[in-house]
Protein 1
Amino acid sequence: MWRIFLKGVFISLFLWINFMPFPVFSAEPEPVLIGATVSLEGKYKETSFMIRNGLRLWEKEVNQRGGLLGRPVKLILYDDKSKKELVRHFYEKLLTEDKVDLIFSPYSTTLTLVASEVSERHKFVMLASGASGENIWERKYRYIFGVYSPAGRYFIGLLDLMARNGLGSVAILYEKNSFNISAAKGAENWAKRFGLKVSFKKGYESGKAELPGLLKEVKGIGPDGIILCAYPADCFELLRLIKETKYRPKVLGFTIAPALPDFYKQAGNMSEGVFGPSQWEPDERIPFPGTKKFISDFTAFSQKLPSYHAGSAYASCQILEKAINHSRSLNHDKIRDFILSLDTITVIGRFKVDHKGKQIGHNPIIIQWQNGKKEIVYPRKMQTASPRF
């Protein structure tokens, strides 16, 4: 009887030792989860490549420095396919299911407007590192901050150059979405302030369908320059039409597309002389701290030179890291208060926002494609070449 009893005890002990769940103590602290969406498909694909790699580069580097508050950083990035409905879905998922600690914005004003509705409701700080439409900061939101110079200031430099060089008129075409409407409105206002005549201004819904007719109207008027406020696909379409019609004014200025490193590769000889606004350029002569290292590190990491989109994404990481290290907290009200008071220099230049969160410290530059490469032509103190008309 005793043998049977002892045998049962030993069997029970064996099972308990081998199968009883013990508490697991991890040497690694829980990661700081940071979420965002990026566009791996659709109209924002090119720029999102830059943003995604800017974020990933920082993730790698901050973890090499020991993470945030002694915890490793882990990015959770979802593909929004450049669609508003997916942005809304994924930001809700990030905040309610994934339980992220922090977030970054998607690319574009259109998508950031949607994402920030979600983040504001949850009282999460969002650095808008890929959006500059003025209407983002007209909603009395308290937790969203701009990194880019606002869209209305994009063409100040180009219009100043036109006025200084005796060019008197400009036509403005724009895609009817938040960012490009803001950019076109700003271009019109600044053209008038510099004494230029806005001889034609018109928006459109479909570039493929409407740009041929608009270019024909502009040609009949004959302005000194055309400014097109549109995403890259329409910029390339207008260049194709200009080549086809053999009509080209003295000045061509586009948003976004000319700042991309592959602009010459896609536009070929038609890129020659094209102007564009840029928030920053990968030129080692730009005197911001960390610029040279960022250019080198990003190029090694992604096998491409960074555009200003990559620089801005990385700068937003720098700002967030500084806010967390200063407040020693992931509390969003503390982070928000610090960012509101911040006046600092990132890899792309000055960062300072007003009480609405709109960027007021950073100013765009103007680049022009000359002999197959980008040159900075404005402001004068940063020029790598003189503008050509």
Note: The chain is about 40% helix and 20% strand.
Protein 2
Amino acid sequence: MKMISMVATSLVSVLFVSLTLTSLCVYGFQSATLSLLNHQKGICTRGSNEGFRLFDALPSLYQEQERLLVNRGVIEFDLMKKAGSPISASICKGTAAAKGFGTSAGMKPAEAKAAAKVHAKELRKSGVVRIDDILTSDMADELREYIFALRQQSEEQVRTGKVKPLERFADVLLKDNRCDLTIPLEEDIVVDALLQVLQKTPVGKMISSMLGKKSTLYELSCLISDEGSNRQVVHPDTPCTSDDTAVLYTCFIALQDIDLTMGPTTWLPYTHTLSAHELFKDDYVARSTGESSKDKLLRTTPSVLGVLPKGSCAIFDSRLLHCGGANTSDRSRALFYFSFKNSNIGYPGNPGSIRPELGSKYTITTLEKELKAMKKLR
């Protein structure tokens, strides 16, 4: 305990020196003791259930961290507010894809393959693509209802000490009115939704063609931001070490219509590159301009907002700069999501938000086989 206290005291001193508004967005990818920034989905630290966690021992430091992150989020909103516009759906002319992907009969294999090729090209180029109607309205409603019941159950299990928090939720820094709920692979609606997305829309073929059939299911969760949740700071989910090699592709699925008041995700297209990341890490304020390269990047780069209709999705490259917005509405925003990891990449720089029993268990090929087997056993 004495050693832990000494380490914590030292870390506090170092952290308060470095923890300024301009340094908050420099990569903080899951060090042994602290991760300042993480998921796309959330300013998160997703560490092990074991070991010493600084913010648990020093809640006042956590509160100061939260305050700085919230303040920085407000600054970034002001920088970016004139450059954003709703993300447009990707359309494949000449196929049923032009009318949407979530029709009751699903897409024909040839159509799904053709659509996947078009969407994959756009995803590689800009780093994010919107695809509409991948879940039916009824399926999205049922999945949302299940997830909110699961959230209530999981909160009760944590409160009574039956499970540890990280067995049900990713450890989110901006905890107020926001959670990242990991999803078990057991409920019928989850199985049906995943089969629908992977087999009857272009999504599965896109992932297989871009990451390979051995790509690993890395995350399976739901991001929920309630009324009053604050805007996140801009961040990538993983470092960018190459312009060519994608690390993760994440699919966000809207479980309700998302409008501007619900804090839609903001993405900065074309920032999944080494050059963009170098600018993003440069927070030195030049005397000649009174602005850092990072703030100039945020101010001048056109962004797209995840204003999504229910049942649609946005798929994005984990290296892309993005953030969640502030939810000022009276309804929770729920994004069911999954990520697949490039099989040629080891640790991607961000622990996956996934139930422990599912971690590293499935490739996209074996997952589809398992889902079909589970459906037959009903």
Note: DSSP finds ten helices and twelve strands in the chain.
Protein 3
Amino acid sequence: MANQSGWSNLRWPVKAIIIALPIIGAVWAAKHFNLLPGSDNTTTVQTDSLGNKTTTTNNGNSTEPKEKKGEPKQAGGEHRSFAYQPEKPVDGIMKGVVEVGASGFNSFVIKMDKEKRWEIISKDFGQSFAYEGLATTEDIRFGLKKYIGTMFDRGVASKNIHFVVSSGAQKEPKTLPVISELKKMGYVVNLVTPDQEGKLALKSVQPPSYHDNSFVTDMGSGNTKISWYDGDNLKALEGPGAKYYEKNTADDVVYNDIKTKASAVPKDHRDVCFIIGGVPFELASKTRDGEERYTVLNDPSTYKSDKQKVTSGVNIYKALVDATGCDTFVFDWDANFTIGYLLSLPY
């Protein structure tokens, strides 16, 4: 009888063990080194500076950060539209106004008709020149002439150029030589009180159809004006401006002051707040959609900045929200209280 092979001479239990050993070893290695789909991987959770969590497994896979439920979105992550469109003027004339403010100059050229409908032709928010660059009276005179010249170029007659000094600027010594030079150049310089300023802002920024359900805030560097219509009468209150930190005033003191004053706004006027000013300008810049006229601001908690003025302005904004419960603060890219001044003049 021929000799049989060694494998043939083995019993089946032994053969089964020999076959199973490599398989068991392969499965153990695959699971140990996470080579099998569905194997239990070690998971690492990392949290970034915004509190978002990123989950990473030891096989290199990761999941996207998930937004926390109830967490406010960062400024720039949300956009709400405000669809109101003002009427355009019919056969209007060109008028210009320069605001001498606490931080610098703003200028506006508008076309206005007999019905006081208006549209912006040009605007310059504080980019003309800074007070710090006006060292001498000659510097001031030269700068003003150049500035006024640009308004002439836009078709504004000399008699239709007006200068308005904000209530906050009147408290700043550095504005006095500017006012003096303007008078020497033959221009009438109009000084406004906080009450007048708030009412003029109301005329400029608040659409007629919103007289009965909204209020207006003009947040300047030197002060904040809150205004609304009480029937046919205009009401206005003054509080600290966004540069209150320069006077070493504490945040909570300003917060409580603004909150107290804003609480006077009638409850039926709190559906919308139309807001203007330097800090609202910066906040609106984060979420503006194209060239839209109106931008709805996000919740105050979403705005972070390394600029002290902006941080202080957000503190004022939060006080307004907390006092009124209003959740629709609409920044108008074209309006300014000085345009309200133009609207108050005879045609």
Note: The CA atoms of residues 304 and 311 lie 7 Å apart.
Protein 4
Amino acid sequence: MHGFFKATICVTTRLVPGRNNDTWTEHRTLYNKLMPELPEVETIANGVNERVRGDRIVQAWFSSHREPFKTTPALQAKGLEGRRILAVHRAGKHIVCELGQAEDAPAGSGRPTRGAGKPATSPDTSPEAQWIVHLGMTGRLLVTTPDSAVAAHTHARLSLASGRELRFVDPRRFGRLEFRDLGRGAGFSASGAEPLTIEPEAFALLFRGRRLAIKAALLNQNLLAGVGNIYADESLFRAGIRPRRMAGRLTRTELERLRLALCEVLEHAIRLGGSSVSDYVDANGMRGFFQLEHCVYLRTGLPCLRCQTPIRRIVLAGRGTHYCPRCQT
């Protein structure tokens, strides 16, 4: 099992001996398209929050590559330095660092001094800025120490008053970093509904009259925020619904079964630290374990864990889709 998942990370341009071309194509598609989903982002956000909440940013460094930055490095550094991290949380597939007012800024300087950390602000303090991180496909947000080796493709290093560093590493540079001054604009919010808290009626309304496959609807971030390929496949399996079924034709009973299955799968994946089938690691650099409990995802041709029917793979909405032809109707 461990060897299989290791193989999905190390992608080259040649076929793996002993595997057919269909299986190889699936592995290469995984590397090119897979990105952290809700459980992975939640795990990272919780880990970062646990370790840096109440800490203060004393210095910010950014790389010269332009791709990861929705806000220019200079504006991010100016906006971040001196601010205390009030909380870190997930919004959809984004990590949002809520920031307090800049501290120790001498009059007229526009820049904070490099002083020692102050006591943590009150939990009731309202944020005045946000630092927003999207991990893309290969992004990592790590809490470490200044003397630890700096990984290649490190694009941000935030030095904290506690002596730790918050680093953003992204080899493929599809991740994004953004700074928002809440005194000048609105805070970040995900465009879709939160799948872990959505009520039954609101969930059913999302799919009413929609003439697209339920798998495609689950992946639509304007409908549900944070659900991706892995957890759509796993939730549809638990709900016993085929991914090709038209979303608007599912009954209320089926939709409620799907909502409950989706919450179940996401919450269990969070408890196990997410799925590490590619580059994903948590804030401490540790891999997740939910991939060991996948029922259908990446199990093409293997027997269903319930009925022993071989798992099938199709392409739906441009994504590899896995299901059991007997358990899902």
Note: The chain has eight helices and ten strands.
